[in-house]
Amino acid sequence: MQFGYALLLSFVAGLATVIGGLIIFFKFKEDNINKFIVGALAFSLTIMIGISITDLIPESTYVLLSNLGISKGIIYSFLAFLLGILAIKYLNVITKRMEQKNDLYKLGILNMIALILHNFPEGIATFMSTYKDFNLGLKLTVAIAMHNIPEGIAIAVPIYYATKSKGEALLKTLLSGIAEPIGAIIAFIFLSKYISNTLISLILILVGGIMITLAIEVIYPKVQKYNIKSMTILGIFLAICLLSISIVLS
Question: How far apart are CA 126 and CA 239, in angstroms?
Fold first, then answer.
């Protein structure tokens, strides 16, 4: 049953990209779209950092210290966190090379490829978090879904205006979003035989490194680019409220 929930939430998080793509069916003022994007991204990055430093990393580190001893526990925790950081930094190098192209259709395609690369580890993160703790996975799903919606906009809008094809624009957003459940399935196939508290803890610390780096180096610069401080503050405030409520109720 836990496997089913984990896979379902990874699908929900990934397919939120398609929700963003639906914007091509409506007419919105650009200012309103930008405000929504900033609020969603600010909310998402705050949740990602908050979950990592209050839940993923401390609880998983405690498990490793208990199972492996203090010395090995600290070393393994550090290496897992560092690997998460390096994974996102490497993906950023790849995606920045892609962004050199600025043709409208190519921009949409490159956005899609870049987001597939980022969505794949997010799918693993959602799946493994839910597999360990449904409530933790649910919070992470909300955070990832909130930043996948603006990502869907980034894919669908340029492709639609370049091709005038709503079907193609939505297909490309779907291809990006489906990378998350694919990542979840692959993680389960390769890791199911070895799943233990120690392995899950190592992966969740790695996920913490991925989430914090993704929030600071990928999502936050996008928020700064729009320079809409009121929506940034609102997104952060709502995320802090949600985190505070979840901590009190847990």
Answer: 18
Q: Which two tokens stand for residue 35?
A: 């405000």
The tens digit of pLDDT for each residue in 165-184 reads 888 889 888 888 888 888 88
Q: Which amino acid is at 71?
A: S
Give residues with Cβ within 8 angstroms of 178, minimum separation 6: 14, 15
Greatest alpha-carbon pair distance for the chain in Å reads: 60
Domain containing residue 90: 2-19+63-210
Structural domain count, the chain: 1
Number of C-beta neighbours around residue 205 at 10 A = 28
In a domain, 248, yes or no: no
Average pLDDT of the chain to the nearest whole number: 82
Tokens of 148: 């996948």
Task: Identify the sign of the CA torsion 172, 177, 180, 186.
Answer: negative
**Domain-embedded: residue 230:** no
What are the DSSP calls for 36-73, one per residue?
A: HHHHHHHHHHHHHHHHIIIIIHHHHHHHHHHHH-HHHH
Specify if 235 maps to a domain: no
Q: Is residue 43 part of a domain?
A: no
Residue 67 tokens read as 């199972």
Q: Which of 62, 78, 24, 46 is nearest to 209 (CA)?
A: 78
